[in-house]
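User: Predict the structure for this protein chain, please.
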Amino acid sequence: MNKIINQKQKDFFKVLFECGELLFQSEKKGSYSADMKGKFFINEMVDEDRLDIDGDTHIHVNWEDVCSVEIGVEKGEGLVSVKDRKNQVLFNFYNFSGSFSEEVKALEGSLVD
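Assistant: Here is the predicted structure, written as structure tokens:
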């Protein structure tokens, strides 16, 4: 499913992306991983909702897999871990400026009903 399936998902990412420039890090699967840095936004298109940085750089998301978020601090940087139904990390966002805002922290937990 390429469209956001729950309003909680949309609300969380909109608040998260208000934090400014973030680093996206895919969870290492086998022999690959990816990092992207920038100011993200949700690009709501007709057949897909993507996480975009600009007109060319974006992340395709299977929204059925995006079930919860855990928020913390690692090495002085804010950390958001996006998890699936099995509580496995799908990808992370880092805030180099420090911990995330209280608005972001208030949305920690389940993103699906």
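The CA atoms of residues 2 and 48 lie 5 Å apart.
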